From TrEMBL, chain A:
Keywords, in A-Z order: Membrane, Transmembrane, Transmembrane helix
Protein species of origin: Novosphingobium colocasiae
Membrane-crossing segments per the record: 27-44, 56-77, 97-117, 123-142, 258-284
The keyword Transmembrane helix appears for this protein: yes
Name the record gives this protein: Ferric reductase like transmembrane component
UniProtKB/TrEMBL annotation, chain B:
Pfam families: Cytochrom_c3_2 (PF14537), Cytochrome_C7 (PF14522), FHA (PF00498)
One example GO MF annotation: metal ion binding
Organism in which the protein naturally occurs: Novosphingobium colocasiae
Major localization class: other
Entry protein name: FHA domain-containing protein
Length: 285, 581
């Protein structure tokens, strides 16, 4: 009986089911069914003069696609409404992911591969952009949190910043005996904004020669022996290590967040383009 | 060993008071209680919070004594080991203790009270800086901006422009509706590309047949609308459902212009309707429209009636009748002619063609089809055979020579012929005499007369000055070689010859498209001994190359529209230009 609690624990550990595996991939199966249906009606019929959005199949797939897009966008509303019980947000998210992916098939077949420079293709391109950013988001959520956690090493983000502040205060004190040129190096390092750099720096994590590094380089050449100098150099090295960690944190966080900066505005743009697409089609009916 | 404690306090005026004191010993205690070596008056600090011990190497060990930890360089800890040469910053509540070494090597602990607790987890503002919100515009703002730009540019501008434009003014086009164009217009309608409102007249109303007909004014109906509806038969359940939906959305049909002529399918010719459009009615036309004269047709390879040719039954009255094409089909076109005789490569005609080949352009191997049948300018059909051009090289109509001039009969003009023959000055000494009743060698007559025709016709013996008209027009006479004598309006003449350019009035055929074929692969002329043979290929012959719409190579996929018109049932095919193929 001794093993029971342990095995129960293990069961508990595996009882967590990600939104991707929800209910044995129920929504993946539904989405596959939808794709199968769309492919079947597309390839088993022979619309003339050619497949397009304006055949009955085109209208059918278009209606399904438009309703799906509106429902998928409602995830943003749903996740803000905390509801108990059967309407599980996990199920909703699972359906959001798989039905969203099935739109690739449904909407592409709706176009009949007739694309051009018009509002109709704009809606299609925006939709594909939303789906692509969503796919990146799934990848990010599946793989980055571990990297984020590894980088933190039990520090909170607030502590990382606090640690930098603490080092900065010590540097400020420790650098008091230094001569003008060297104190200028320390001042430059202290004046450096941790959060400087645009989206490119955030995502690449690549920051070319910065002040802390420059100060470390200059002071390490200054020679051994001077205790004050030695202390400042060691503090600068620690500051640099902490800054690097903060930047790794920012980079992973940026990767985790950036897709939503595409996904959400592109979704709203898509809803607008979809509205224009549908109204224009019936306006010039 | 000694600790040097430096307390920095700030007066109300903002002045700093720095007070140093040395604490001998290798350990000291920290806490809120007054008996501690370092007394930190702050409720967040425990009465006896931590203990610092110093070893010989100048290393400090800090250990928490109670349940609360402390902060080392911003990080929570319950124990820490610090090299005083490197230093560190300890945090207890709002108090910060900086560990370092003084100039004389003594371990220096600098106490300072900050405005906020070191233990609280970071500055919220600064934590926000870690996320992308610090470097990117907000999602909500971007969403609104993009959505509004799209709604204005792609919806509001065209709609407002459409509703407010001056319909009477020419050139007052709708602005921005080009982005609504789902695909290029067909070549014929290409000039309407930026004039959407030319066809899309009323918002939310489908393009009407009446709009198409406002330009295409002279289009004929395919059939009476009631007969069309009858021919359609009853719609299937699926089709009926689809049409009821279409009607709910205001569409016309079935049978509306756009049902067959789909626009915006690219800058090409508008695609010919699929064979199914025709087969919808014509596959069971006999059933739905019992009085029709047409056979059922749904696919050229499988269901199609035999071709029907309009053949002449009486050349005098020009009476014609539609007859199915086949090997036995005959007509009376008024001509006496044998294709076999003229095409036999080893016959007399071939020899003759060879001998005058240089003059007439005939080949060395006898007459070819092209020597007499000349295509029309567009290559679609053939010009009628002309006596003067195509026959007279051999069949000379010369009858007299006066001075250097050879006199010839006028083909096709009987009164002129009669006048010429009556007036002919007939005498034995005339150069024609030898032609008429003397023996001659082939070619000699032509040389003597200086004309190209080596043959002269057979004159019966003259009975009076001039030649006998009756004899010339008789079966044995000059005209009788190719024509039948007849009395027309009480006057002697010949049966008029009918050379139809077309036999199939409801279908389209283009000889130019069949250039790679030999004439004889469709027309069995070399085996025909009489002009009455209608040398048209039958359905079976066409099917050797042509099959239905879905035919696979090497057969030619052939829709109904390849040969038939829809709007131009009776004569329309005649008008169809080559590009219309």
């Amino acid at each position: 009986m001794a093993g029971t609690p342990a095995s129960r624990n293990r069961e508990y550990a595996t009882a967590h089911e990600s939104f991707l595996r929800h209910r044995g991939f129920r929504w993946a199966k539904v989405a596959l069914g939808l794709c199968g249906f769309s492919l079947a009606v597309y390839f088993l019929t022979d619309p003339r003069p050619r497949p397009s959005g304006s055949t009955w199949i085109g209208y059918t797939l278009g209606t399904i696609g438009a309703l799906l897009i509106v429902w998928l966008a409602l995830l943003g509303v749903r996740k803000r409404a905390i509801t108990p019980g059967r309407w599980s947000l996990k199920a909703w998210t699972s359906a959001h992911v798989y039905l969203g992916l099935s739109l690739i098939v449904v909407a592409t077949l709706h176009t009949g591969f007739q694309l051009g420079w018009n509002v109709h293709t704009l809606a299609y391109v925006l939709m594909m952009l939303v789906i692509a950013s969503g796919m990146f988001g799934i990848w990010a959520y599946a793989s980055l949190p571990r990297a984020l956690s590894d980088n933190r090493e039990q520090m909170t983000q607030g502590q990382m910043i606090e640690a930098l502040h603490a080092l900065d205060r010590q540097l400020n004190d420790a650098a008091q005996p230094l001569d003008r040129a060297r104190s200028d190096l320390v001042i430059a390092a202290l004046a450096q904004d941790y959060f400087a750099g645009g989206i490119g720096r955030r995502l690449s994590g690549h920051y070319p020669a910065y002040a802390t590094q420059a100060a470390v380089n200059a002071l390490s050449l200054a020679g051994e022996g001077d205790a004050a100098l030695d202390r400042v150099e060691k503090l600068l090295v620690r500051r640099k290590a902490m800054l690097d960690r903060l930047r790794r944190q920012m980079r992973i966080k940026a990767m985790l967040e950036v897709w939503l900066y595409v996904h959400v505005p592109a979704t709203m743009a898509l809803l607008a383009a979809l509205t224009a697409h549908i109204i224009s089609v019936f306006y010039y009916w | 060993m000694t600790f040097r404690i430096r307390e920095i306090k700030r007066t109300a005026a903002g002045r700093e008071i720095v007070r140093d004191r040395d604490l001998p010993g290798d350990a000291l205690s920290i806490g809120r209680a007054a008996e501690n070596d370092l007394h930190l008056p702050d409720l967040a600090v425990e009465p006896r919070h931590a203990r610092i011990t110093l070893n010989d190497a100048g290393r400090l060990s800090v250990a928490a004594l109670g349940s609360l930890g402390f902060v080392v360089d911003g990080v929570d800890a319950r124990a820490a080991s610090i090299d005083s040469a490197v230093g560190a910053e300890l945090g207890f509540g709002t108090w910060r203790i900086t560990v370092s070494r003084d100039a004389d090597g003594t371990v220096l602990l600098t106490l300072r009270q900050a405005d906020d607790a070191a233990t609280r987890s970071g500055d919220l503002e600064q934590k926000r800086g870690l996320s992308l919100a610090g470097v990117l515009p907000g999602k909500r703002a971007m969403s609104w901006l993009l959505a509004i730009v799209i709604l204005i540019g792609f919806l509001a501008v065209p709609v407002i422009s459409n509703l407010t434009r001056d319909r009477a003014a020419k050139g007052d086009a709708v602005i921005g509706d080009r982005s609504w164009n789902p695909g290029a217009l067909s070549l014929a309608h290409h000039s309407l590309t930026d004039k959407c409102e030319a066809c899309h007249i009323k918002p939310f109303e489908p393009v009407r047949d009446a709009t198409c007909l406002s330009c295409h004014k002279d289009l004929q109906d395919h059939a009476d609308p009631q007969r069309l509806a009858a021919a359609h038969g009853k719609l299937g359940v699926g089709d009926a459902a689809l049409w009821s939906i279409a009607h709910a959305f205001g569409k016309e049909g079935p049978g509306a212009c756009r049902d067959c002529h789909a626009e915006h399918q690219g800058q090409t010719r508008m695609a010919a309707p699929a064979q199914q459009f025709c087969a919808d009615c014509h596959s069971s036309l006999k059933k739905n429209l019992p009085d029709t004269a047409l056979g059922d047709a749904s696919d050229f390879a499988t269901v199609h009636p035999e071709l029907t040719a309009l053949v002449t039954t009486d050349p005098l009255s020009q009476a014609r009748r539609a007859q199915p094409v086949g090997p036995g089909l005959r007509e009376d076109n008024g001509l006496s002619f044998a294709h076999r005789l003229h095409l036999d490569p080893r016959g007399g005609v071939a020899r003759m063609a060879a001998s005058i080949g240089a003059m007439r352009g005939y080949g060395g191997s006898g007459l070819q089809c092209k020597d007499c049948h000349r295509p029309t300018e567009d290559g679609v059909r053939f010009q009628p055979v002309k006596m003067e051009r195509d026959c007279e090289g051999c069949h000379s109509l010369a009858y007299d020579r006066v001075g250097g001039v050879v006199r010839k009969l006028h083909h096709g003009d009987v009164p002129q012929l009669m006048a010429d023959l009556w007036a002919a000055d007939w005498h034995r000494a005339s150069p024609m005499a030898g032609l008429i009743d003397g023996r001659r060698r082939p070619g000699s007559a032509g040389q003597a007369m200086g004309v190209s025709g080596p043959f002269a016709f057979r004159y019966p013996a003259p009975v009076r000055p001039g030649l006998s008209v009756g004899a010339a027009l008789s079966r044995q006479g000059i005209c009788g070689e190719c024509h039948r004598p007849a009395t027309i309006n009480g006057r002697p003449g010949v049966v008029p010859v009918r050379q139809p350019a077309r036999y199939m009035m409801h279908g389209w055929f283009d000889h130019a498209d069949h250039k790679q074929e030999k004439c004889t692969s469709c027309h069995a002329a070399a085996k025909s001994d009489t002009a009455a043979d209608v040398l048209l290929p039958d359905l079976k012959s066409c099917r050797t190359c042509h099959a239905g719409e879905d035919a696979a190579a090497p057969k030619v996929p052939s829709t109904c529209a390849m040969c038939h018109g829809y709007h131009t049932v009776e004569h329309g095919s005649d008008r169809r230009d080559r590009a219309g193929g």
